[in-house]
Amino acid sequence: MSDTAVYALQILVAAAVLLVFAAVVSKLKNSPDWKLGEAVSEEVEFAETDADGKVTKTTRMMASSSRLIALLGMMVILLLFLGVGEVVIWDVAHGKDPDLGGVLNFFLAGASLFVPYAINQVRSGFESIGK
Question: What does the alpha-carbon distance between residue 46 and residue 50 come to, in Å, rounded to a whole number?
């Protein structure tokens, strides 16, 4: 396979990923029922005192750092997968057997970006059991 064909294939793969991403973003932007700020928020319970001195519990949506970290981490891992895929395409097109031995460890380390989100979900699960 010529270098030009490999470059074309790599551009095609990257363009396909970008087009799918753009389509999803476009659909979500035009949806009246979906907002990014709400998607990375979570319900938090507050105790408030009203004018009569009564303490009431209210629930509000608050920004969630763990959900934002998970979103950003997912985007970074997607780009890394795309990058590794491009290298694999290059190697295979040039008759090389790609050495993927260390790639799994690399992506497992990247998956650690999701640990705060996972811990938060486990915490929320235990809180709901206690109610």
Answer: 12
Domain residue spans in the chain? 3-130
Residues near 98 by beta carbon (within 8 Å), at least 6 away in sequence: 87, 88, 91, 92
Reply yes or no on whether the pLDDT at 98 is more than 80: no
d(CA 33, CA 107): 34
116: tokens are 């705060």
Encode burial over 9-25: b for 16+ CB neighbours within 10 A, e otherwise.
ebeeeeeeeeeeeeeee
pLDDT mean across residues, the chain = 82
Residue 84: Cβ-neighbour burial (10 angstroms; 0-12, 13-18, 19+)? middle
Alpha-carbon distance 79 to 15, whole Å?
13
Q: Is the pTM of this model over 0.70?
A: no
Which residues, 6 or more positions from 120, have their beta carbon under 8 angstroms from its beta carbon? 42, 64, 66, 67
